[in-house]
Amino acid sequence: MFRGAVDLDPLNADSWLLLGFTESLTDQLDKGAEDLKRALELDPDLGDVHYFLSEVYIIKGKPLDALPEIERVQEDDLRLHQYALAYYALGRKREADAALNELTAKYQAVEAYNIATIYGFRNESDKAFEWLGRAYAQHNTGLMETKVDPLLKSLHNDPRYATLLKKLNLPN
Fold first, then answer.
1. 66-122: pLDDT as tens digits
2. For the packed helices 63-71 and 76-89, what is the interaxial angle rounded to 10 degrees?
3. What's the rounded Cα separation, in Å, for the pair 90 and 82?
4. Digit-coded pLDDT (tens) for 23-54
């Protein structure tokens, strides 16, 4: 779908952003990073591209590469989310916990899904499912990504995951 949009208008940075994001969700991390960088070339001020690119780097196991991208994330809540992930991946638990605690203190009413993804990435299943439950109660739109979110892969073998997918009406 987004590949077609890029083919029709190769100078549209938003289309490259959406293509790169979609590729990152489908385990095409190298292609996703490449297309997100293309979006930045076309529009260096494009919102969210630094967020998605930093996440690709974290998932690829390159959290040091993620740090300069995180610094450019404009929204405080999204920046805290990415720092919590990157610092954890770097083994800097104290800094990761500080970012997670600040995110939770300031944004728990609207960022339950993102908080859940941090716990999923950290392999803390009980906390991840607790926050996914909160996200459900908040009607958090992030839940649409539950099945494909690479940060939640650690939950896939947990029986609660199949129950959650059913509750969200997502095929298992």
1. 999 999 999 999 999 999 999 999 999 999 999 999 999 999 999 999 999 999 999
2. 160
3. 12
4. 998 889 999 999 999 999 999 988 899 999 99
- pTM tops 0.70, yes or no: yes
49-59 helix and 63-71 helix, angle to the nearest 10 degrees: 170
Show the DSSP H helices in 1-150 as ranges: 2-8, 13-25, 29-42, 49-59, 63-71, 76-89, 93-107, 112-121, 125-138
Structure tokens at 77: 């809540």
DSSP state of 150: G
Name the phi and psi angles at 14, rounded to 5. -60, -40
Is the Cα torsion angle 63, 69, 71, 75 positive or negative in sign?
negative
